[in-house]
Amino acid sequence: MEATSCSSLLQELQVLSSSLMSISSRVFRSSSSMGGSNLEWNQISSTVLWDEIGETDHERDRMILRLEQDCLNVYRKKVDQERKHKSDLVQALSEGEAEIAKIISVLGDQGNPIPVGKQGCTLKEQVSKIEPMLDDLRRKREERVKEFFEVQSQILQICTELSGSTLPSGSACPQIDERDLTLKRLGELKFHLLELQKEKDTKLQKASANIKTINELCSVLSLDFGKMLHEVHPIFADAGNIQLRSISNETLAPRTGSMLTELWNLMDIDMYEQNKYNNVTSLMSASSADALDHGSLAMDVINQAELEVERLNILKATKMKELVLKKQNELEEIYRGVHMEFDFVAARQKIINNINSG
């Protein structure tokens, strides 16, 4: 292989040497026809110098051969440079065509291949034709990547919201698969985004309706709306904790009102005392819709009514004890009048225990 390369190089040098000698002879002939030139003058000057110096013909031939070799080296270096330039153009053309084919495949535009004319075109012309095509395809790819990024960012955001979590600041961006930027894939992602948006809208409507209901109930129950929403999720409001036991007060209030009325009738409580609790007793005959006035089911109202019921129960027990003891004293007088013996102490204690136990 090395011998073949040397042989080829030797043949090329011989061709170059012949070309150089031909050029030199043409230059000499041109110089003679023009009546002398710098080349002829230099040749004459060299001959005169060699004569004066006394150089032999052998030395003169050796110097001329060295000059020819230097010229061949310069020429060969120039040829090598042009070969490298050609190789670079071929490589650039090949890489450009490969990148064009790759981008077309990634974008899914197989039906519209971009032709690159080679027939009758030099390498420079082919490269100059490829460059604007490649720039246009790169621009299309960047635009498509932006579309994918926007769609996938929205998908990630909605999925995070639907899962009940939040995206931390500086969170990772959605991963774009740049191997598949086809319109088909983009359409699939947009359809998925549309489905997620519908699901989000449905849940937002439900959440809005629930928040409205909570607001109305908080108004009826005299509760802090912000605190109540914070119990649902901290994202709604920043407030302290609250117990949600008052949800059942709509059923507690009528029952408390009935007990109050029963005890008042039993204890003969005057109307002035009863009027203090009209907002509770009025709920006995009211429907659920009529009971939803502002503050009508507030916890302080319910607690106040329960305290009144407790007070009346204690008062009832006291009154009952007084009544029973009064009746028992009358009964004792009757027994003594007819000279009958009876364990009045044990009977009195038993009656008191029954009253205390309710």
Order of helices and strands: HHHHHHHHHHH
Number of separate strands: 0
Helix proportion: over 70%
Distance between the termini: 122 Å
Strand content: under 5%
Quickly count the domains: 3
Mean pLDDT: 70
Shape: rod-shaped
Largest sheet: none
Number of helices, where a helix is a run of at least 4 consecutive DSSP H or I residues: 11
- Computed over alpha carbons, the radius of gyration is 56 Å
Q: Can you tell me the residue ranges where pLDDT is under 50 for at least 5 consecutive residues? A: 1-6, 30-36, 238-256, 284-289
Keywords: Microtubule
Family: Belongs to the MAP65/ASE1 family.
GO molecular function: microtubule binding
Protein name: 65-kDa microtubule-associated protein 1
Overview of the structural elements:
This protein has 358 residues and is an all-alpha fold. The protein has 3 domains: 2-111, no CATH class; 182-242; 245-356, no CATH class. Helices cover 74% and strands 0% of the residues. The chain has helices spanning 2-33, 38-53, 57-107, 123-162, 183-221, 225-232, 249-267, 271-274, 278-281, 299-337, 344-356. Helix 10 (299-337) packs antiparallel against helix 11. The longest helix has 51 residues, at 57-107. Residues 1-6, 30-36, 238-256 and 284-289 have low confidence and may be disordered.
